Structure formats: C-alpha cells, structure tokens
C-alpha cells in the first residue's frame, strides 16, 4: 500500500525574515492598542532588540523605535503618565470619546456584527480571554487573532498543505475585516493626536497591514510553485 505524503515546508530566506518580524509587530500593536501604556510595557518594548529589527519594516515602526528607544530610563514614568492620558482621551469607549476602536462603529454596522467575528474565531478554534470585556470587533482583538494565527503558522506548519490552510484564514481576515476599516480609523486617528507614540503606532498599522497581505500572497505563490514542482 502506498502511503500518501505531504510536501515538506521549506521557507526561503526572504519569507523567513518576514515571519520572524510580523508576529512581533502584531504583538506591539495588540499591546499598545489594547491597554494603557504602563511603565513595564513601555520599558519592555523600549529595550527589546528584536523590536528594533521588526520596526525597520515600516516608516511608522521607525518612528516608534526612535521615540521609545531614545528615552532616558528616568523619564519613562513621566512619558507613561502623559501617554496614558492620551490613550484615555483617544480610546476610552464612552459617548464622549473621540473614537470607538471597533469595526462595527467604523463601518456603521449593528452591534450584532460581533457575532460574525465570534464565529470566525470559533471556526479557527480560538477563544479569547478578555480582561477588560473587549468586543470581538475591537481593534486589539482583531489584531490578536492575526498574532495567534501567525504563531500557529510559524510553529505548527510542518507541510505546505497546513501552511496554505493557515494562509487562507489570514488572507481572508485581512481582506474582509482589518483592511476594510483600519485605513479610515488610522486617518481619523492621525488627525486627532500629536503623540509620538500613537502616531507611530497608527502609521505602523496603516503601512504594515497592506504589506502583510502582499507578503501572504507572495508566500502562497511560492508554496504553490513548490507543491507543483514536487508533484
């Protein structure tokens, strides 16, 4: 009896560098969009050497790197206090807030739209533990979904077939969700703040997501070519 084989996953160098950085970028965005900038959070990212490498993928990342990595440690408490006030002003989900950082709000959809996102996460086998009761369409949750899917693809893809399945999920999520609403969110965000931290994050977000989709598509083409060669 012939046992069918699944082509092994080989990652070219250009995609390897992207894979090494994209998870870190998603985590930076999740951390700062999902919570107030505590001293431990700012200190951790301002001294993270891997962040410096990942930041070079976008101009927004370079802005963020210059801001966080150039601070004197003694100044960090004052910076955190200042940026915490800005986070509250921009991101607090109250009627008087400047923004509601949610897909439904940006696209004028009903609150029940969260059920759509909940089904997407459940179909991927993901259930989020939400410390602050975030909605499923909150920007931090949507970005965390991509971070989790990246981790699965990075550490659990032992074949072209499994990589392609995880690529499908991420491409669809970017096309059908994040890239549908984050451009206008970032545009309004940029106009509403002069914070180096939040401008850097916003610029990183609006630059990185289209780049990430382009790289996912390019890797798909590479995998399909490899599969055809091995067939």
UniProtKB/TrEMBL annotation:
Official protein name in the record: Chaperone protein TorD
Keyword Mitochondrion (UniProt): no
SUPFAM superfamilies referenced in this protein's UniProt entry, alphabetically: TorD-like
Keywords: Chaperone
Organism: Paenibacillus auburnensis
